[in-house]
Amino acid sequence: MSVTREKILELGEELILTKGYNGFSYQDISTAMGIKNAAVHYYFPSKETLGTSILKTNRQRFEEMVENMQNRSFDEWHQLESFMKLYLKCNRENKICIIGSLGTDINTLSEPMQQELQKMVERILGWIAETLEKGRQKGLFRFNIPSNDQALQILSSLVAGLQLARVLGKHTFKSVHQSIWEEISPIENKNQQ
Amino acid sequence: MSVTREKILELGEELILTKGYNGFSYQDISTAMGIKNAAVHYYFPSKETLGTSILKTNRQRFEEMVENMQNRSFDEWHQLESFMKLYLKCNRENKICIIGSLGTDINTLSEPMQQELQKMVERILGWIAETLEKGRQKGLFRFNIPSNDQALQILSSLVAGLQLARVLGKHTFKSVHQSIWEEISPIENKNQQ
DNA sequence: GCAAATATACTTACTAATAAGTAAAATCAA
DNA sequence: TTGATTTTACTTATTAGTAAGTATATTTGC
Predict the structure, then answer these.
(1) Which of A140, A116, A130, A128 is nearest to A50 (CA)?
(2) Under CATH, which architecture does the A48-189 domain have?
(3) CATH code of the region B47-189
(4) pTM higher than 0.85
(5) Among A167, B7, B29, B149, which residue's Cβ finds the most Cβ atoms within 10 Å?
């Protein structure tokens, strides 16, 4: 596939994560790449098609990660930590999560983008819940609420953790990450501090 | 004070909570109010001054709420629940929290707005932590991590809870709200379901 | 008490910049 | 030379913001 197209997708995603969907323009992309505005429109006729493609790429990347972890037979603890590492990386790079970013702008997005976003969130939440449930049965995690609720709590913490970290400073996210593990770690590790 | 000015502030806030800071324009405000664009600029010369005023109003409203609860000698449980009720209301109205909304767009905001946002988040987090600490000492709450960390976890859940609820449906937030209470409720009420 | 000055709350009518998007011509690579 | 890619050169719409004017109160000087 075209390297220009790939680069546009990459830059578009970065802009969503740093400036928000309504905070960037095709100009931002074209000038950063040293091409013309119309070249971006050649690959993505409208901002909506770009946005939808970025979301689809994200979901695909997530599936690849999950598959990869299965192939390497990561246990559930390791799987969840790998997922959280994506957020730690975001935090280091002063980015927020695409869910939080587009969640803010959702009322200004086209129907296809909204649906794609919803599909993505449902998939991720489902995976977290599933991983939590399996891990709990193995004794890797300990929590008392339904795994769907626990998954929602974890994703919420991660999503808003990045946003708050951008307001208060990067160090903020460390505490969020730690609290999540303290929340679901088995009893023997709990309150060890 | 001018009723027009008040109405602009109100509408501006609503637009930030529904469409995001970069997703609304002065036109949105003026047409909704049946006045001209320039009339909005009369009260708020720039979008930045409007944004900063909205944040200041928010902080002021928060202080009034806290003071009011102190006057009515609410216990810490009642205080925290009142604070969370603000988020339940937001959820009913399909809005998100101003922290999450502006947290997304922070890199596109002016310095004064960023600082005002930071001040606001610090104040709210401080209040939650303080309230949690007092309540824990009275036996109203139970949690093992530092109250600052617990406060951060609660605020994260609330902020992203609203965003996720807008993606997945309002019912989502109920689970978030419930999980928070299950997290910090004293042992006698825990796991009662 | 009353005219003159002034402040308040706007509207009209702009500007300059930027937004997304397009048609057609030019370039490039096989 | 053919098709993919990219630029040139636009359009149309919207953005934040401004300058100048107007009607209506409100205050001030005498």
Answers:
(1) A116
(2) Orthogonal Bundle (1.10)
(3) 1.10.357.10
(4) yes
(5) B29
